[in-house]
Amino acid sequence: MDLPVMPPVEPMLAKSAATIPPGMQYEAKWDGFRAVVFRDGDELELGSRSGRPLTRYFPELVAALKDRVPERCVLDGEIVVARGGRLDFDALLERIHPAASRVRRLAETTPAAFVAFDLLALGDASLLATPQRERRRALEDALRAAGDPVFTAPVTYELDVAHGWFERFEGAGLDGVIAKPPDLPYRPGERVMVKVKHERTADCVVAGLRPHKSGPVVGSLLLGLYDAGGRLQHVGVCGAFTMKRRQELMAELEPLRMPTAEGHPWQDWADADAQAAARLPGGPSRWTGKKDLSWIPLRPERVCEVAYDHMQGDRFRHTARFRRWRPDREPAGCTYAQLEEPVSYDLAEVLGG
Question: What GO biological process term is on the record, naming one (predicted)?
């Protein structure tokens, strides 16, 4: 492979904002695997944001990209899987499997798509120093003849349209809006774009904690919600505390600490069959590898309010943000019924956009 922009490339990133800024290029924020496509003739590589290669997991996408993108190019975009007219991140996660036979089967049953939103190189020319607006025009020209499963992300320069997308597209599984300065060159690894994501709050039961890697202080709090059957389901974690707050939380929660998980709603967390039947902490992950997922059980007696962006099935898609303790709330009242559901919106309408 001999391209003007060679792998690995750290994708250009975004910083969070509370509102959509004016005077930008706007796109939907896709919920998939960020990927940079490097194609040089018959050679094609899918590089992840972390530098981990994704090529072997998406053979059907490799074939489609070779058929639909220019022979020499570097594209920035998102690998997604859709089910029932919306993005399905859980189905996408299943595509990361060590067994080649499983990879081939999933390529047939849950095929992936690639949504391109930037062009880093074309032919013998690097476009890294080219302004965003010009790269966008070049991207549209380069992928004009492309088709399913290779798409060009919809774009607008109208703020009111971006606000409409922010409200409507969530129902198709997208989680916000990305704003890019039109004159911005491509700056790998830098947070120079703006992301605006949905934020909601929920009252959750604090039923456990994981220690911080630095020592005996809180790393994250394990959150639970009761389902319709009265079972406490693990819905995610909240973290991002200061070191001082981590120490304070460990002291605050010490009276709730249980010597073992016996008698805890998640006492069977280490059992594979139990993991398959319910949402429990400590489940296996092909992403975390050998990362220690053990946790300290707490009596599920305290409630906290957290902020979250959106749900992926029955769990928080991303790490929640701790807002405050809720001593006025009873744990039994922390149910899924409090969660807001976005209005449904067909993903095909987004991609046709």
Answer: DNA repair
Among 179, 198, 217, identify where a domain stops.
198
Q: What is the pLDDT of residues 72-121, one digit of tens each?
A: 999 999 999 998 888 888 899 899 988 999 999 999 999 999 999 999 99
DSSP string, 131-157: -HHHHHHHHHHHTTT--TTEEEPP-B-
The model's pTM is: 0.75
Clarify whether 195 is annotated catalytic: no
User: Taking the mean position of all CA atoms in its chain, how far away is CA 197?
Assistant: 12
Residues 145-174: tens digit of each pLDDT:
899 999 999 999 999 999 999 988 887 878
Residue 67 makes CB contacts below 8 A (sequence gap 6+) with none
Q: Which two tokens stand for residue 98?
A: 């060590």
State the catalytic residue, choosing from 15, 29, 213, 244: 29
The CATH number assigned to the domain holding 262 equals: 2.40.50.140
**CA–CA distance, 53 with 36 (Å, rounded to integer):** 10
